[in-house]
Amino acid sequence: MITYFSKDRRHPQKVSRKNVKGFGLFSSSARFDPDNQFLGNIYSFNDYYCEPGYGIPMHPHEYFEVVCLQISGCMHFHDTLGNDKVTTRGSMHRFSSSSGYLHETTAVGDDPMRYISIWLRPYQVPKVPAYQQHSFGEQMFPLNRLQKLLSNDKVDKSHTACLIAPVDVEIYGGCADTFGFSDKITVKDAALLYVVEGNMCIADITLEAGDHLRIDNNASFTISGSPVGRFILVCTGCD
Q1: C-alpha 103 chain-centroid distance
Q2: Which of 74, 142, 185, 200 is buried deepest, with most CB atoms within 10 A?
Q3: What is this structure's pTM?
Q4: Domain of 212: which CATH number?
């Protein structure tokens, strides 16, 4: 089964700075949506837009795996493990917050910065915080194929992505044009597909940026751009 949610069903996120806006896909205490709560081990999925010089100040995380995918602009990333980086489009950060971890993100340069934050439930909470970062560039969204961005740490290393985490989840990026994917995509258990940029047609459903699909029951579907669309696919139940 595939369920469609328009961008208007996203939930505005409360952010301390007015020059930052965010949208969450899932139900929250501030805006309850019984039809769109967390999905498997995907606890939270948020899309943030930050004006130059602004971002989300230093704040804590506990017990979750968090993945940040940078969509545009320049990000200054700083955390309590000593990481201090400036990254651009196509960069991906992943951290294990363990029992305590703090970080901050700020847009630097002259242009706005956008990134997506995904919170995942680990199958085992690491004893200490950990951090990984990789720059995919435009290969975060390769044309008419999937790029594995994050895999769980139980699979054969020859099949892992550049980033791994103790989660029963895999994350992919992709881009489709009017020719589309040559083969259908099949999800094993359940998945979330979020349109990042452009317009797409998936399983005869027309989507635009900000729309998302919840996919379950081993559904298979076709993907094409209208004319071009970029997306993130988060699959649960991986082993």
Answers
A1: 17
A2: 200
A3: 0.92
A4: 2.60.120.10
Please list the residues that pair with 104 across neighbouring strands.
78
Tokens representing 56 are 């989300």
Q: How many domains does the chain have?
A: 1
Range of the domain at 202: 2-236
For the record, the structure tokens of 220 come out as 């298979």
Cα angle for residues 222, 239, 138 (degrees, 5° grid): 50
Q: What is the mean pLDDT of each run of 10 residues along the chain (239 residues)?
A: 92 80 79 73 93 90 91 95 94 89 93 95 86 94 96 69 88 96 90 97 95 90 96 84
Distant-in-sequence, close-in-space partners of 224: CB < 8 Å, separation ≥ 6: 176, 177, 178, 179, 180, 181, 200, 201, 202
Residue found under tokens 């971002």: 55
CA distances from 65 to 25, 71, 163 (A): 18, 20, 12
